[in-house]
Amino acid sequence: xxxxFKKLLSVALASTMVVGLAGCGNSATxxxxxxxxxxxxxxxxxxxxxxxxxxxxxxxxxxxxxxxLKDKLGDKVKFDEQNxxxxxxxxxxxxxxxxxxxxxxxxGNATAALQAAxxxxxSIPVLGTSVTDYGTALDISDWNGVTGKNVSGTTDLxxxxxxAKCIKELFPxxxxxxxxxxSSEPNSIYQSTTITKYLExxxxxxxxxxxxxxxxxxxxxxxxxxxxxxxxxxxxxxxxSCTEAINNVAGPAKTPIFAGEEGIAKGCGVATLSISYxxxxxxxxxxxxxxxxxxxxxxxxxxxxxxxxxxxxxxxRADDLKVxxxxxxxxxxxx
Length: 335
Hints:
By secondary structure, the protein is α/β, with parallel strands linked by helices. The protein contains 13 helices and 13 strands. The chain has a seven-stranded mixed sheet, with helices on both faces. Strands 2-1-3-4-5-11 form a six-stranded parallel sheet, sandwiched between helices. The N terminus is likely disordered.
C-alpha cells in the first residue's frame, strides 16, 4: 500500500512540474522577451514611413519615431522607410505600395507625405509629423484638433506671434522683411500669411518671395536680399534642403535670416524659435504604439503639439552681422 501511494505521489509531482514548465514557456513567448511594454500578443508590426525629403529636421523626426517604437516593441516592429526626394507624386506612389502591402500603420513625415498617405487609404491608421497645420493640409475648414477619421499626428507649428517678437528684439531697427518660401508648400503659405500680420503689428513692411522648386532658390534669395533688411524663412521643406544655396547668397549680402526651425537656422540663419524634431517624432511614435497595441481610437486622437520651444542663435553669424542677442537665447552649434 505504501509503495502504491509513493508511486501515485511521484506521478502527481511530475505532472505538476510539466504544467509549471509549460506555463513558463508560454509566458516567455507572449511577453516578447524582456521588454515589459512589448505587445503581449507576440505580433510583429510593419510600419511604412514616407518622408518627403532628406534634411536635418525631417530626419530627426523619423529617428525619434522609430526610437519610440523600438523602445516599446523591440524586434516586434519593422519599418519600410522611403524618401520621396522632395517629389509629391512620389509620395503617392510610396504610400500606395504601403497600402498594397497592407501595413499596420503609415507615417507621413511632412505635409505632402501626410496628404499622400491620407489619399491612399481610409482604413489603415495614418500619423503625420513635421506637419504645420492639419486644417490646411487636410482641407478641414472647421479644424478643432481632431480629424474624425483614420488620421492624427503631431504638429511642428511654432507660436508665430512669438517668432515675430523674437525678430523685433533681434532687429529693432529693421524696416523691410522678406519672407522666402516654396509656393507649392501649403503650410509655408499658411505660416507666411499668419506671421505677416504679427510682423506688421510690430511695424515692419513685409514682402513675400516665392520659388517653385530648388532650381530658383538662389535667384529668389538674391531678390529678397536686395530689398530686405531681414529675411524670414518658415518651416519650409524645400528651403530646408537648400540652406547651403541660400547661405551662399545671404552670407555675402550680409542679410540676416530668422528661421522657423533650427535646421534652417544652422544652415543659413542667425536665430530661431524652434522645437526638437526628434522629440516631436518620438511623441508620434508613442501615439503609434497606443494605436497598435492599446487599441486607441485614432479618429478621436487630438493632434499633439511640441512640448517646448527654445530661442536659439548661431554665434559666429550673429557676431559677423553685429546682431545683439539677448541672454535668454541658447547658443546653437552648426556641427
